[in-house]
Amino acid sequence: MNSEQQHYAISLDGGKLSSIPKAGVWFLLSVFLIPTLIMHVWIGLAIIILYLILSHCVKKENDLHSKGLLKWGQFLCVLGIECAALTILRFNVIKPLLICMFCLLIAYEFIFALKIKLKIYSGTDKAQKKVRNVLTATSCLCGFSIGRLLARFGDTDVVLWIMTLLCSVLVVGSITVFQKVLVYKIIKE
Asked: I need a labelling partner for 64 at 20 to 30 A (CA). Which of 71, 155, 169, 186 fits?
């Protein structure tokens, strides 16, 4: 089981994640931060403080794998919180958003436990990891396209549910990356 958790912890290559283009990160984070700062200055400042705290944690990390995972988790966490804040401020849907996040987190943890039990992480070969990297890049491009498409639809229920799901996926994704860092640090010691 310990070996399987080690494969889980290194399933994302932290060394490659640490080389995420900074211009793209800042662009995505600022696209959602500027409207938040305009609508509610205090929420925008809280997000900036959260980003700075997470940046400090990333800078203190010496291990390249952990540093890459923390940078990726920081990006997903701040982007997810920015999207969630804008969704809550625009649509006032805090309960559905929290319920969706909770359900996705429970589903992820169930799948995680099942994959550990079935030893799926240790059976993943390099070809599947390359496919995962291509899917990740495609997902980022689709996310940007969905954002532009949603801006054209206006205030409809479809937009509300898509935004709720997108925010939930981003926040749960950041939680799972931080979980990988925690498992990696526990196994490394």
From this structure: 169
C-alpha torsion angle, residues 54, 167, 37, 46 (rounded to 10): -30
Q: Is 154 left (phi over 0), alpha (psi -120 to 50) or beta?
A: left
Query: What pLDDT band is residue 34 in, cutting at 50, 70 and 90?
Result: confident
Spacing of C-alpha 74 from chain mean position: 8
Give the Cα separation of 119 and 21 in Å (integer).
33
What pLDDT band is residue 162 in, cutting at 50, 70 and 90? confident
Tokens of 139: 């997902």
Q: Report the percentage of the chain scoring pLDDT > 70.
A: 74
Instruction: Tell me the C-alpha distance between 67 and 64, whole Å.
Output: 5
**Token output for 52:** 């700075």
Query: What is d(CA 30, CA 78) in angstroms, rounded to the nearest whole number?
Result: 10
